[in-house]
Please model this.
Amino acid sequence: SGGRRPARYARATLAARAARVLRDNDTGTVITAAPRLYPHMWSWDAAFISVGLARLDLPRAIAELETLFRAQWRNGMVPHIVFTGDEDAYFPGPDRWGTDAAADGPRGVRTSGICQPPVHAIAVQRILEVARASGPQERAEAERFGRSIWPALYSWHRWLVEYRTPGHSGLIAIVHGWESGMDNSPRWDLPYAAVRPGAELPPYVRKDVRIVGDPSERPTDQEYDRYLWLIEEMRRAGYDQREVVRNSSFLVGDVFITALFAVSCDVLLELGSEFGRPASQLADLADWASRARHAVAASCHPVSGMARDRDLRANRWLDTQTIAGFAPLLCGGAPDEVQLRLLSLLDSDRWCGHPDLLAPVPPSVSPMRPGFNPRQYWRGPQWPVVAWLFGWAFERRGWHERARELRAAGLRLTGDGAFGEYYEPFTGEPLGSTDQSWTAAVVLDWLC
Ligand code: 9WN
Model:
């Protein structure tokens, strides 16, 4: 394709194509994250997918989240993959994860043993908004759903606080880069350098590189060895969360997840007040939101203002500047002066204002940073879902003009109708998978 960029579709055609992607990826049980590369349900993908589906088929949107939460672990964790259909179609599959024996695992469904960013409350609220605008019957149906799923959302948030806020930073900790959703982001390079795969790592064969046309758009084999080694460690610990957090060779406070958690707690609190949930649970959510927000603000670099992850094993801040550094813009709570600095940085030629970008969507890494790679996964390309999250947050914060601009930029990027997993920022070439469900879903939401 060499950077060739197909024509852009008119809005109605683009919407029809996005709807078709979601229909085609529907196995009847789940909507897979992507046709071949990700033939199962992923946790944060399912949340975005349900937002897009709410525009097409409300019962299907609801069913998607219900399926995900039926796989919730008994301790509250929402697993990052719910396996359905051909279990060998993706590596690592359920046998490699070895979660069947986990004491805390769900019954009757096979899952991975880690989590992903907590964006589900955001999806539920969005579904409610869409349903309310559609009519009284949809409204009633969405409210019934919201009430019934609320306790599961609360226990998911409670799990993150109980098991994943070790130490004093207040940041939500991850035990695997996959939990961040930004697998090979340079954010994790230092902590991963300390992960030493043991000789006991069972052999394996990657499937992803056989599916994606150009393997250099995916993480490297060295990275995969570490990903698999961490799974090996957890599996040996029987997925006992206390033990995993105590011993895993990767433990990092993730500032982007923490910001999403803060704002998701706000949303869950709003929903809970409306549904008349117990005051003690609402108070918990207010407390968790405020602590998370505080942790995000406290992570900001004194000069750049960018929020930082914290390596909890090596006890140090991780200064690598990536899209995650803008986390305070998602949840607020940083001093005005820091926030202004972040906004002007985001608009500058180092980020969205870079003169060579096809569309002013924030790339995963600044094109001005050493190590920026425009084609490799979370090391440079633009990810439509990330743009959606910032746009959603800006709207919520009352920054309507910014939200509108980001929507327009997102549509410019995705207007080729390929629904790429990620995009080359200068040419707009879709990379990774095409017909990626969450890309189709956010496009639908942007278009409506
Ligand atoms: C591992 C499904 C998922 C996304 C992640 C993205 C990618 C998986 C992979 O695909 O991760 O979880 O195999 O690379 O990084 O954000 O949820 O779309």
Q: What stands out?
A: The CA atoms of residues 25 and 35 lie 6 Å apart. Residues 136-164 form the longest helix (29 residues). The pocket of 9WN is lined by residues 33, 38, 42, 44-45, 80, 178, 181, 183, 208 (CB under 6 Å).
